[in-house]
Amino acid sequence: MRISRDHPRFVSLRIRELLVKGLQDGIVVPEGLLAHGRGEAFDYLIGERTGKAARRAIEAAGAALLTANSPVLSVNGNTAALVPGDVSKLASLISARVEVNLFHRSLDRERRIARLLSRYGLEKVLGVGANASEEIQGISSRRKMVDPTGIGAADVIVVPLEDGDRAEALVKSGRKVIAVDLNPLSRTSQAASITIVDNVVRAFPGLVRTVTRLKHMRRSSLEKITSGFDNKKNISMGLAEMMAYLRRWRMKA
Amino acid sequence: MRISRDHPRFVSLRIRELLVKGLQDGIVVPEGLLAHGRGEAFDYLIGERTGKAARRAIEAAGAALLTANSPVLSVNGNTAALVPGDVSKLASLISARVEVNLFHRSLDRERRIARLLSRYGLEKVLGVGANASEEIQGISSRRKMVDPTGIGAADVIVVPLEDGDRAEALVKSGRKVIAVDLNPLSRTSQAASITIVDNVVRAFPGLVRTVTRLKHMRRSSLEKITSGFDNKKNISMGLAEMMAYLRRWRMKA
């Protein structure tokens, strides 16, 4: 499952296979394939690797998760299909809860995702069916319904592959939102407290490694990492990396 | 069906709907959704509109099609789902043959695409089943099999949403290849004789308009347009437009 260490071309083919399989298994919806394709194109533009800005965002995210009172990982179909093992590992490292939260909601799909994650060692998956009984203000889609013991009670939330609507509403509600999004200028990326502009198949293993490294650090040192992180500035630096890559590309053309 | 004149946001949602419907109808494959998503991201980077470089490429393509002896439009699942009416209209304007040619080949899907196009007025669709009996050298996928009366006999071919493999092989075989591809640095874009870096939902109506306008021009004037067109230079100018757009984007961020 740790597919992120292979050659980029192989990785992107392997990811596509996983998503098409996810579609067949009722984990992924067609819209998820479209969304992933968009991400893939942005991934080309950063050279299909984790750049400096993304590494800094991952470090800030790791520190924020380790100092959180009630961290939650929000999982959708694509995330479950691509990095179920890393979601489980990260959750156990930081004692986070995991909640399934889908844009195209169906009880069947929620259950399938929960079952898939449990095969990767997760004991409990929140947000399935009627358990998502609390409403977050300002979200028009059915993503507004959350589990009161999960996202409802969270102070820090990881939202990979999110829609902008919900990211904005979660930030507005006072929560710290860590987004994983390959489009640095999406509404999600712009709204989030910490934006990791990276492919989930690299960002999640990166979070696992970072949290493992930071885990024994003093709380004050961790807080220094998060308070020293400027998200707007970091996104702008990421965009500069992207443009430098595009310039080199253009020279080769 | 002429969805290209609406607001970009609405257009991209409408396109997604058409492709998801195409998937349900057996016209589009999951890989087509992934490919479209990639295109969509590149479309953001050109502002979801047809820029100067694309307009020049469309004009050169129109002139090349009008001076061709045996023009062929190659159609895959996504193209059939998105612009069936424009494919039919363009074919009738330039007396081109239309051939279905799929990466993920199945007789069922070929027939469905042919039926769909016939509903839009196309009398004959080549390349279905055993009719694709001629092999193009240098293509490893099943796209290598073509209709001897279609792509087999063509001197100019429009290949929207192509894979690089086949674009390269078709150019090597001495044919003029007109690609429609939103990624200016894909192998297809690099290999093609004329690369239209644009969304098919804008490029096809654009080709229809351009051909209508150029149709009564003298042959010598049309030949002047094609011979004056430098594809490498035009792609590079398109990339410069993309980077200028990205810079403005970054300023807003």
Biggest chain pair contact, residues each? Answer: A-B, 33 and 33 residues
Distance between the termini of chain A: 35 Å
Q: Report Rg of chain A.
A: 17 Å
Question: How many strands, which pairing sense, and closed or not: the largest β-sheet of chain A?
Answer: 5 strands, parallel
Strand order of the largest sheet of chain A: 2-1-5-6-7
Oligomer: homodimer
Described by the principal axes of the CA atoms, the overall outline of chain A is globular
As a percent range, the share of helical residues of chain A equals: 40-55%
**Structural class designation of chain A:** alpha/beta
Total DSSP helices of chain A: 11
- Roughly what fraction of the amino acids of chain A lie in strands? 5-15%
Average pLDDT score of chain A: 92
Q: In sequence order, what are the helices and strands of chain A, one letter per element? A: HHHEHHEHEEEHEHEHHH
Outline the low-pLDDT stretches of chain A. Answer: none
Number of strands of chain A: 7
